Amino acid sequence: MLGSELLGFSIRNLSHQKIRTGLTLLGIIIGIATIVAMLSIGEGLKIYTAESFERMGKNKLFVMPGGGAAGMAFGASAFTQNDVDAISRVRGVEIASGVYTGAILMEYNDKKTVSYLLGLDPANVEKLLGGPTGYKMIKGRWPTARDSGGVVLGYLLATKTFDKEINPRDSIFIGGKSFRVIGVLEELGNSQDDSQAYVSIDDAWAVSGVKDQLYMIFVNVQSGEDPEEVAKRVERALEKRKDPETFIVSTPGQLLEQFGMFITVLNVVLGGIAGISLVVGGIGIMNTMLMSVLERTKEIGIMKALGATNRQVMQFFITEAGLLGLTGGVIGIIIGISVSKIVQYAASSAGVPLKNAVTPDIIFGGMAFAITVGILSGLYPAYRAAKLDPVEALRYE
Length: 397
Description:
Blueprint: H1 3-15, H2 18-56, E1 60-65, H3 68-73, H4 81-88, E2 93-108, E3 111-120, H5 125-129, E4 137-140, E5 150-153, H6 155-159, E6 171-174, E7 177-185, H7 191-194, E8 197-200, H8 201-208, E9 216-221, H9 227-239, E10 247-250, H10 252-295, H11 297-305, H12 310-349, H13 360-386, H14 390-395
Parallel strand pairs: 3-8, 5-7
Antiparallel strand pairs: 1-9, 1-10, 2-3, 2-6, 2-9, 4-7, 5-8, 6-7
């Protein structure tokens, strides 16, 4: 039997049992859709994270409380200016600058909101956050040491948060104190960063009522120095002053690696869940094929009596199983891509920087996986059909 005839015959047989075929496809569709959506979102997150760390620069170190970002969020193990000074004296360190962060009430044009305030050293803020690959201004400029009472706003805070857009030379109340806007940052892609306000560290302490507390320290490594080696020196310097369990010194590469491991673990967990759906789908295909063999026993006997070989009978049923896998794979990929885009849109609307990246590897891999599951699930039923005795098959009622 020619390939086109075999395919046409398989399609006709499957179309005669529409409900059973549809239910059989469901497991494959769910499994492939889950895998495609999961992998495309994971790949998008990896690309976004890599771009974010590239924007930060490779010559940066980040000194955070024990527990990392979570510890910083809860104000754990605050640093002091003395810690910054100790890091500044470490060989290979170009700049060390402390950061204060905290939520605070902001008011503009009679509308109020609570957002994050970052206090930075104005003498070093442009070197730490700006540069060719860093944050860029769309309006105004970076603050200097002379800009007491000046503030730089994130893109969303300046353009979307309040009823009226905020521009340089406008005034905004932060913690009840009036600040003059001197710059607006370009959109970074996530709501938290784009809704922050940046002021001098002294101004941040003044409006927050906190003095000499820092929740993170940015470090610029001197040109030609190895960031990994400088990080070890910074750790040794801080260990003389603090419990090693109360702080973490990380490079952008280490943070990227940690995030990549998190995405990998997430992919494995979700992949296991999707794998269960595929196993269920495979069992469904096997069950459908076994039922098909049972229902067509006499038909198989006629085929073999007319000269069909065992191999041809196996090809017939394996083609049906592979067709089920192929159809489920195509539908699953389409649904998976659609789901990933819906999730991206919903996350973006909520201000979460979740993206998807549907690569050819994901599409072709998902398709190959679906077809493989279909064919493997059809092997045993096909073998059963091929081994039927034609005489007994013709007598079957």
